[in-house]
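Action item from last week, closing it out:
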Amino acid sequence: MRARRIWSVLAGLVLVAGVTVAGLWLARGFLATRAMERIFAQAMGSDPLAELPDGLHVGLCGTGSPMPDPTRAGPCVAVVAGQRLFVVDSGSGSTRQLSLMNLPPPRVEAVFITHFHSDHIADLGELMLQRWAGGAAAAPVPVYGPEGVATVVEGFEAAYGPDRGYRIAHHGAEVVPPSGFGGEPRAFALDPTADTLVYEAPDLKVWAFPVVHHPVEPAVGYRFEYKGRSLVISGDTARSERLTRAAKGADVLLHEALAPNLVAIQRDAARAAGRSNYAAIMEDILSYHATPEQAAAEAQSAGVGRLVFYHVIPPQPVRALEGPFLGRSREIFDGPVQVARDGDFISLPAGGEGMTTANRLNTFRF
């Protein structure tokens, strides 16, 4: 009799659990809708830049290369100085990553381009459009870059020209002011011997310097300085003494890197498959990118606080490849070394020496 009562209780519990699960299943649409309401109310009602402590912040909105990688968008770096948002390069898919990181494209005050390889400008048209249509911008976004930036900006404006007309006709000039469409190219000339000040605002300076990416010329890197904190972004470059000088004492150096040992695997596979064109490209790219060890030597010479690799070549969809990618980098540079992932976010509080890291995408990696 006791065993029967136990089984009766268990059966009742199973029935209750089953009814509960079934009820939740039937109510899943309602629950999801209410959750969506809360999420959008919070997102629309907050200012993500105002919520950050005063300082210099770095967000990786794209850490990949032209090679397809499901975990990485094309090269893109978001820089927040105080409450001012800037973007350096605009690789494929990076505008979406920017939004997912809660760094709103309408808040972008200026874009800086390192050079005009397609993987660094592929999303510029989308970034300009999202800034305009998403924020009712009354003036185009300034786009800084070396000579040739006007051709790039005007090309994207031409490609998006029909879409501009559709959106104005549909939403009206008050929602999407015609004057705010596109970008305003601001080309700068480079000094062969000294860094060039290309942007200045209260407490903020942005310097450009030439890097080695032959036959791509001009190609530049950037240094951001804000309230005693500093960040250097290499752009695409082989080992560069100018970059080492520009990075002196920087809190963070974001450096591109190519691992020859891993690229060789792609090259050899291409040769074995008779794909001589692809194999030749894998051989050619070795000459105008830095190895992780070379970047680590630059970081050590410059005395930077942290070395972060972005524009990672080849793709690294799993973390187990980080060791083979880095090689001897951690033996060469005695500070923290990080292989960046999309969504990584580094904060440098104003006037201090601290540094915090997080990821604003929180995507699963293994």
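Closing note: The longest helix spans residues 2-26.
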